[in-house]
Design goal:
By secondary structure, this protein is mainly beta. It has 1 helix and 21 strands. About 5% of the residues lie in helices and about 35% in strands.
Length: about 290
């Protein structure tokens, strides 16, 4: 209950910001997390290509019949693979119409059939709790990776640019920082054989991410006073904050982790992983990440 109350406070502030600032359009520039799935296809995963191959606009030569395929343009998530992306300096906010677009290398072939390897999309305000966009398992509506790209169009002009657009209003969210895409391409093999998206499951390899375009965002105010300051040592983190600050730590799965010491975190007390510290002081809230990898 406390965590939910904290999140409500956090993003009521973000909502205020979004309602009192002009918004802009941009592309994702950060990968917060990724986990490759199974399968033989590994296109675009090496450091030579990833993550730059998913930043910027969708592939300019992609069309209805010619999908993006170069490792410079896409990264293969694999079966069950997932990735969490976003922007370093922006909140993605809900405005009229779609708020972001996801591009995969969908294309049309044969007698009007569509080759698609879709993914489930969920979003988060804090990187801990994600809300999934609903989808129809028969029509595939609501999934990413079911609409081809028209790469020569303005990347911010939807639906002309193609891709699959998502509106935060659909799930009742005002603002987010994180977009998660999880491969669900095996759903194609469960469709009727005469379905427009059905194909031989043996030729599927998993979701291929090309780009994510952000249609509505506002700049994060990085000039605000820090509530929590963290200094990293050899095998510890020192925490600095005032007495009237409430501090809570969570692991990457969203479970609260007891703070053995409120002013210093020794690495050997905790399992290896990513942890989120949330500090609250009056109406101000701050979220910071630490990594324990001793």
């Amino acid at each position: 209950m406390l965590k939910k109350n904290l999140l409500i406070i956090i993003f009521s502030l973000i909502l205020y910001l979004s309602n009192n600032s002009s918004y802009s359009q941009t592309f994702i520039d950060t990968v917060f997390y990724n986990k490759w799935g199974t399968g033989w296809q590994t296109t675009g995963r090496s450091e030579e290509f990833f993550p730059n191959n998913i930043f910027g606009p969708p592939c300019k030569i992609a069309t209805k019949y010619l999908p993006a395929s170069s490792p410079y343009d896409v990264v293969e998530l694999g079966f069950g693979g997932e990735i969490i992306v976003g922007c370093k300096n922006y909140y993605i906010v809900d405005k009229e119409g779609p708020d972001f677009i996801i591009f995969e290398n969908v294309f049309m072939y044969g007698n009007g059939k569509i080759f698609a390897e879709p993914g489930v999309v969920s979003v988060s305000r804090d990187g801990i709790e994600f809300v999934e966009f609903p989808f129809n398992p028969l029509t595939l509506e609501g999934l990413a990776g079911i609409t081809w790209t028209n790469g020569d169009a303005n990347p911010f002009d939807w639906p002309a640019i193609g891709g699959d657009a998502f509106d935060l209003a659909t799930i009742g969210m005002d603002s987010i920082r994180y977009i998660k895409i999880k491969d669900t391409s095996r759903i194609i093999g469960t469709l009727p054989t005469d379905h427009i998206y059905y194909c031989n499951p043996q030729i599927l390899t998993g979701f291929d991410l090309n780009a994510v375009v952000i249609l509505h965002n506002v700049l994060i105010d990085n000039k605000k006073e820090e509530i929590l300051s963290i200094t990293e040592g050899y095998d510890y983190y020192t925490l600095t904050y005032s007495d009237n600050t409430t501090l809570t730590m969570y692991n990457i799965l969203g479970y609260e982790v007891p703070l053995i010491n409120k002013n210093i975190i020794f690495s050997f007390y905790y399992p290896i992983g990513i942890y989120i510290l949330i500090a609250i002081k009056e109406e101000k809230i701050e979220r910071k990440k630490i990594i324990i990898n001793r």
